[in-house]
Predict the structure.
Amino acid sequence: MEITNNSEKEQGNLPPVNNTDILKSIKLFLHDILDIRKDTNAKGTIEDIKGNISMKGHTAWVLVFSILIASIGLNVSSTAVVIGAMLISPLMGPILGVGLSIGINDLDTLKRSLINLGVMVSLSLATSFLFFLIPLFRNETPELLARTAPDVRDVFIAMAGGLALIIALSRRSQQTNTIAGVAIATALMPPLCTAGYGLAVANLSYFAGAMFLFTINTIFIALATFVIVKFLKFPMVKYINSEKRKRVSRIASFVALLVFAGSIFMFFNLYKENRFKQHAQDLINDIKKSGISIIDEVAENINYSEKSIQVFIYGNKLSPDEIEKWKSKLPDYNLDGTQLILKQGVDDSDLRHEVKNLTDLYSQNQKIISSRDESIKEKEEKIQLLETELSKYYKSQIPFIQISEEAKANYNGLKQISYGNIIQTNFNKIDTLTVFNTQWYDSIPKSKEQHVLLKKWLKIRLNKDNIQVN
């Protein structure tokens, strides 16, 4: 007799899993999440971008004042002020116009965008240049120096920001918070302000570095706009003359190819520079980990254009064999063809001995100061305790001179007054009794009544109940 397992039987009756159906479901799910074509408003996006290209009238003045605000923010190293200036600046209009016009073969819009882009850059440089010409505002700040050299990460920021911006603009309902965020992230204004600063202080390296950073941001934002416009298949501009249409199409394609090639070239160069600097820093870190002391570590010591690394060593001098050993390790850090310059001074053993003596002396002085601090602290605590006790004592005292003058003025028959504190006990408790002794003129009538009034007055005046008046 054969025994059949019901669970196995049921499992055997289940239909086989179809991997193709699962993949189709995942594909449909991802398409539904990531698809941006179904909610695109191509016509409205083109109108919005074209409407924000112009840099004249109100827009020009908004640009001038936003550049002025950003320059002030950079001068005082205020990130909040710089962000505020970026939020109100109209810098994105011509840049988006360039990317859009290339994408839809609109030569007229391309000319208009390039002209307004030139106007925008000229106004920005002139404004920041005039501001930084004022001697009071010509000091270098960290915010300014941070915009004097581009980084490969700036390319990714510009590309991602441009993609986010054009996608947000292409929606039927625009996301204004995305547009504002992109304006901050891509940071177009600070490089222009820094370039104006470089002109004002006659530092062409600052000017060139800042303009290079601005150019990178501009090109990659325009490139991102071009890519999305092509992806969303925005309608191409049609020309009645077929020859003109072909000519415009060729020009637009050539410009797009030129921009794309320039972008790839700049990205590749920045990538190689960042890679070189990272490998050089790894080498320097390993030199320090080996016990060699290094001073004067600045970015300028790593020179990508000359393929050289300078390291300033102090302390024990390296032997020629040790120097050769580190130079032979350059290929291990992908630094082939790089010149490692190890600079070290004369024998400084006497100097290091003097430094050690000074360090020991400083340590001893710190111990002396610490013990003195403890002694001073104890004395301060004693003084505070004595002041507290003295305050209690003075608080319990009666201002006798003032009381006697007031009593004399209030009671004409009062001839003499004296007081003292008497400690008394009934063998259950001890009390302190304040006793006033008085003498009155015999010629003053009703002295007994005044005696009673004086006692009441003293109790109220001194806020005491245990008062005795004789």
Q: What stands out?
A: Residues 35-237 form a domain with the Glycerol uptake facilitator protein fold (CATH 1.20.1080). The first strand starts at residue 293 and ends at 295. Residues 7-11 have pLDDT under 50 and may be disordered. The first helix runs from residue 6 to 13.
